[in-house]
Amino acid sequence: MTINVGIIGFGTVGSGTARILIENRELIKDKTDITINLKKIADIDIERDRGISIPRSILTTNAEDILNDPDIHVVVELIGGIHPAKEFILEAIDRGKHVVTANKALLATEGAEIFRRADEKGVLVGFEAAVAGGIPIIKVIREALVGNRILSIYGIINGTSNYILTKMTDEGMDFKEALKKAQEHGYAEADPTFDIEGIDSAHKLTLLASLAFGIPLSYESIYVEGISEIASQDIEFAKELGYKIKLLAIAKRVDSEVELRVHPTMIPESYLISKVDGVLNAVYVVGDAVGETLYYGRGAGDMPTGSAVVSDIVDISTRIVGRCTPLSEYIGRQKEIRIRPVREIESMYYFRFSAIDRPGVLSKISGILGKHQISIASVIQKGRRVGEAVPLVLLTHKAKEADVQKALLEINQLDVVTGKTALIRVEGQED
Question: Could you tell me the residue range of the domain that residue 382 belongs to?
Fold first, then answer.
């Protein structure tokens, strides 16, 4: 059987998807006994050379040529953004067409409506490419680990931030220098806000958490903090303490609640996920049956992400022809669960104070921490400049976020503390 596909958006991912569908057409047919026919591609620019041999007849500047074609079974949305991507997807669904998308921002913020509409119309929405590029993490959680109660997920799922932190760690660059380098290499946009402030990671975590825990899409409930305040000295102090700093997307079951958060996190250097550097992504998943698992690979790019898009196209195609049912939809079976506010979490903490070098300063700070039930695990003080501000670093045992924030508010008001205290949460086992 032949399944006809239309792609809306012929940019980086669209080009990679088209290349795989064309160049690996016979390979896919050999594996599935299904012919995937790329029938139409729509983009506002159909003149630019993408380095792919494509018949001119399948190119169009009008997305309606795909949406109105009764012979197209699967519509692939790869333009990104919220509008008009949402309208294209909903129109495709209303016309009874299955949809594949890599649009994590759209699904995280508007996905409830899209999935509900798809469920009503009896069509499928594939979104493997929306999280971690070529890493098949959606399939892993939805299918391979279906017999597990997922306990926690830790993800390095933004290559831009990981590249910046790697440059700061390995080459001693400051944040601004590392960001500039990322932009020069095309790893960061001219406006990198979504990447460096954790928003992109939060969009992806929204999808992972919904699949892992069977909860509604909860983007607005995620605590989000980016890496723009990480200083070079924090990287160095983390090294001295045996940690590396990564931007982590974290989802955890805690009793009958769920934690959802994205923030810079200190991870022991011995952990495998701490060794994932550059633009690479990794997702660490813990299940009650399987235990600890790690998935690692390229999280972006034309071919890795195109590979994930094609995977969804093939999965849906096999469903259409009735060979197997590889997709398990979750809409309509979700249960409301309380998302634990960040102030209620428990973690270890790294603090870097800018403190006046004089006797009694450490005792003042430690006294306030002790008053708020925060116990100190390690202390580092570099340099002696009596009467001047010097870095004072503390690593704590596990403490409650609310207690930490109260203590810092009090400490930052001391006349011996100058500037804003740096705080980084720490994941890993206590010694």
Answer: 343-426
Going across the sheet that includes 59-60, the strands are 59-60, 35-42, 2-8, 74-77, 98-101, 125-126
3-class state of residue 148 by DSSP: coil
CATH (domain of 370): 3.30.70.260
Number of domains in the chain: 3
User: Cβ contacts of residue 370 below 8 Å, gap of 6+?
Assistant: none
Instruction: Write the DSSP assignment of 205-246 as a string of letters.
Output: HHHHHHHHH-----GGG-EE--STT--HHHHHHHHHTTEEEE
- Measured CA to CA, the distance from residue 41 to residue 18 in angstroms comes to 9
Are residues 308 and 139 in contact, defined by beta-carbon separation less than 8 angstroms? no
Indicate which residue of 39, 97, 104, 204 is catalytic. Answer: 204
Query: Can you point out the beta strands (E) in 236-277?
Result: 243-254, 257-268
Residue 241 and residue 294 in one domain: yes
Is residue 156 within 8 A of residue 198, CB to CB? The reply is no
**Residue 329 located in a structural domain:** no
Domain-embedded: residue 193:
yes
CA distance 299 to 317: 25
Q: Let me know: does 401 contact 342? Beta carbons within 8 Å.
A: yes
Backbone angles phi, psi at 280, to 5 degrees: -70, 155
CA 158 – CA 328 distance, rounded (Å): 26
Residues 12 and 130 in one domain: yes
Q: pLDDT tens string for the chain (431 positions)?
A: 899 999 999 999 999 999 999 999 999 999 999 999 999 999 999 999 999 989 999 999 999 999 999 999 999 999 999 999 999 999 999 999 999 999 999 999 999 999 999 999 999 999 999 999 999 999 999 999 999 999 999 999 999 999 999 999 999 999 999 999 999 999 999 999 999 999 999 999 999 999 999 999 999 999 999 999 999 999 999 999 999 999 999 999 999 999 999 999 999 999 999 999 999 999 999 999 999 999 999 998 999 999 999 999 999 999 998 865 433 344 445 678 899 999 999 999 999 999 998 889 999 999 999 999 999 999 998 766 767 889 999 999 999 999 999 999 999 999 999 989 999 999 987 76
pTM confidence score = 0.93
User: Do 120 and 12 share a structural domain?
Assistant: yes
Q: Which DSSP state fits 386? A: B
Provide the 10 A C-beta neighbour count for residue 197: 18
204 assigned to active site: yes
